[in-house]
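Much of what follows relies on a compact textual record of a protein's fold. With that in mind, consider the following protein and its fold in token form.
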Amino acid sequence: MYPFQDVIKELMQFKHLTRRQLAETLGVDQTTVGQWLRGKKKPGYDSISALYEKFGVEPNLLFGIE
């Protein structure tokens, strides 16, 4: 079970994405991505949907639900 910020970091590393690129892909600000990576904020429904659709990341995986 991984915290959502670790899943997002791994996704970024695997896809070779910068914060800016991930933010642009998901339609959010770079600041928002930074907050996710620090665990200060969790992705909203729209961002979770976009992560699933664009990268195949299951919503349950983001939050450590098996």
In short: The mean pLDDT is 88. The helical segments are 4-15, 19-26, 30-37, 45-55, 59-62.
